[in-house]
Amino acid sequence: MNFSDITPLSLSIILCLFVAVFVYGRKKSKFNLPPGPRPLPIIGNLHILDRNRPYLTMHELSKKYGPVYTIKLGEEKVVVLCGYDAVKDALVNHAEEFSGRPKVPIFHERIKGHGVIFAFDDNWKVMRRFTLSTLRDFGMGKETIENKISEESDFLVKKFKSFKGEPFDNIMIINAAVANIIVCILLSNRFDYEDPTLLKLLKIADDNVHLLGSPMAMLYNAYPSIMRWCSNVQKTVSKNVDEMHVFIRETFTNHRKHLDINDQRNLIDSFLVKQREEKPNPKLYFTNDNLTMLVTDLFSAGMETTSTTLRWGILLMMKYPEIQKKVQSEIEKVIGLAEPRVTHRKDMPYTDAVIHEIQRFGNIVPVNLPHATTQDVNFRGYLLPKGTHVIPLLTSVLYDKDHFVKANEFYPGHFLDSSGNFVRKEAFMPFSAGKRSCAGESLAKMEVFMFFVKLLQNFTFQAPPGATLDLTPGVGLTASPMAHKICAIPHL
Hints:
Blueprint: H1 8-24, H2 54-65, E1 68-73, E2 76-81, H3 84-93, H4 105-111, H5 121-137, H6 143-161, H7 171-187, H8 196-212, H9 215-222, H10 224-230, H11 233-257, H12 267-278, H13 288-319, H14 321-334, H15 349-362, E3 371-372, E4 377-379, E5 382-384, E6 389-392, H16 394-398, H17 441-458, E7 459-462, E8 487-490
Parallel strand pairs: 2-6
Antiparallel strand pairs: 1-2, 3-6, 4-5, 7-8
Helix pairs in contact: 6-7, 6-17, 7-8, 7-13, 8-11, 9-10, 11-13, 13-14, 13-15, 13-17
């Protein structure tokens, strides 16, 4: 039979049958995602999100749809978890089931599952185990790295003093100081703050943090096949990553030339030793691609979140000088002019509370890094299929009013009892939780405490004359302070 023989009536009947099969003949899915706002065709719920700070909209939506709901970012359904109870339930009580990573286009197209942050399955498990054990081997949580932080804090103080109380921008200076700690672990090295190589790496990392959290990146992830042709965001990110990778590959190539199995000086040496040991195995994990991406991950993550926390700390001390004075009084009472050490922390409850409140209020990673279910999982009355994209919204935990009475204010009293003793809060979750929590958490805690105390021991921070201090966070993958200048007034 020729197609020309089909009458209009026959064609109509065939089309009706197709529609009937499509609409009524499909098997009903056994999965039931939680309800959420009604999506529009093609764009989903993108139109209702704050394009610069989507986490604000996501948090607000939980008031209407509850702590577990679904939104559509373009055509992809995403389950959002809000509030301490829901986030803890997923990341801690169902840790294995929520330990996956979705293949977010702007990350996956360049990273392809290498490294540790966006790695998957067994590769992620091997890289995370190696990262944790090697960070511990090279001093994380030990006196050796504490000495390095103390030494670096002296360089930072010297740099701040060079401005003689005049206004300056502290972004690159603090980034450089913090970066030198992770560089020490990765490369057994430190850079001068004006070193062009370090400044280039810091600029690359800073640019990508802003690009990856931009509205254009959100659109790219929703429509990668279209945006690839009409947006430069992915090209710019890839170009930046390639530049960093060139430096890293050159570095570990040089390390390979001088590798001594019996004298492993840093993380790269340890990885190269593992690489040699693994050679006979058919399934390789300790590859050059994994090493390149792992060093990139640790450099970027090890620098960005800690330096952003310190910058929030200085800004908040300028905004609340009475709190700054109380911290300085406690420093003078407990430490005096001695070198700050981690052991001092237990005797400094007010300073400890202030640092915790800086991390809570600063809300450094508000959206959290995305998670995915590793298997079909029953969660709070819903059956989520394997591979479901999940956002455990950290901003909703750190600003949970059931746990922080003045959630929208900077209030160190959140971490103090009526007698002024430090109080731990279970909803304090700036490093996330569960199997994907920050691998460098203990290192970050040491850095923030020692740098912060050393700076306030040596300076009083003030806003430049006539300046307005804006606590609105900037746009980016992390919520860093808006650009501002500081005055560091040295103590005589």
